Amino acid sequence: MKMNMKMSLKVGQRTTLLGRLKMAEWIEMPEKQFAREIADIENDPLFKKLHFGAPDRPGIVRRQPWPHGRLAGNFYEINEQLVAGGERVRVEELLDEGSSIMPKIRKMGREAFERYFLYGDEALPLAEIAKKTGLEVSEIEKISELLLKIGAEAEFALPNAAPAPGVRQVCLARLSLEGGEPEFEFFSPYWARGRYQIRYDQLDDWKRQASLAGAELKKIPQLLRRLETVNLRQNTVFRIMESLTKLQTRYLESKSEILKRPISLRMLAHRLDLAPSTVSRALAGRSVLLPWGREVPLIEFLPGRRRVMRDILAGWLKQNPKETDARFAERLNDECGIRVSRRTVNAVRNEIGAAKS
């Protein structure tokens, strides 16, 4: 009996470990590769049945947009800005395909396009969407395919954006603040669409009504698990991005580097109830566009206390190089909420002097 319990425990631990390793792979997955995973899922005929439903029943997979998130406006102006990792990959083919579709998107209007194609506010079959938009079913399908191809083959790059230095980053969104709340303009359609919302409460009824082959019925659990994995991956990255934006509100409102809040990786991980390694993976290779147009890696939102102190003291020393360490320590506490000793201030002051020399 005890042996069976021990074996069961080991199997359970192994399953949990494999699950964590799998999620780590998804978190680390480059955005372009991830977009192709999305395209693979949504091109699956079974997904289309689950999402679009049929005339006699609605679909059970919908989309739930991110709070304060939307698609960047430059999507509606497909042009030579379409890039993929800085290279022109299949741009010409996408432009050729989009040239006949984009006028139809503009004609139906942004509101209708986002309602029926981007966010899927209503669970409608293809024929019903065609009726409401005045398009043919074949045109509806082409618009859906174009969205997936754009996500899988290219990213939208904003003009006049200063690229982040160093390692190549994938810019996820433009940040802004509205009434102190973060706003996100996503550059890729699959990001702007948000999460999949699966109506598990309707799944059994839907399976009874749908005319599915035996193989399709067996495949449903596997497909739904993939959707849940996608949700978990995207939700993790978004929560990190949203939290960092809120924590650095003063910096984003002022554009002042000295108002950056000192945040450690462990602090952010604890705040979000995530493992530090998960947060590290989610930050790697991803950037955002600041309200004033500069692209920065997400890791820039996590400056350590030492770095923040150096930036602040460097500015103060330019204004008053003869100020005492004790006075600087008082100012750091009163003006920046950073409590440090006079000795720490002196050490950082010497670092700044050494860097100059």
Unreliable segments (pLDDT under 50, ≥5 consecutive)? Answer: 5-15, 79-89, 156-162
Helix run count: 16
Strand order of the largest sheet: 2-6-5-8-9
What's the helical proportion of residues?
A: 55-70%
User: What would you report as the Rg, rounded to the nearest angstrom?
Assistant: 25 Å
Averaged pLDDT:
80
Main beta sheet, described? 5 strands, mixed
Sequence of secondary-structure elements: HHHEEEHHHHEEEHEHHHHHEEHHH
Distance between the termini: 71 Å
The count of strands amounts to 9
Give the overall shape, derived from the CA principal axes: elongated
- Judged by helices, strands and strand pairing, the structural class is alpha/beta
Strand content: 5-15%
The total domain count is: 2
Q: Could you please describe the fold and organization of this structure?
A:
- This protein is an alpha/beta fold and 357 residues long.
- The protein has 2 domains: 33-300, no CATH class; 304-356.
- Helices cover 58% and strands 10% of the residues.
- The chain has 16 helices and 9 strands.
- The strands form 3 sheets. A 5-stranded mixed beta sheet has the order 2-6-5-8-9. A two-stranded antiparallel sheet has the order 1-7.
- The radius of gyration is 25 Å and the shape is elongated.
- The model is unreliable at 5-15, 79-89 and 156-162 (pLDDT under 50).
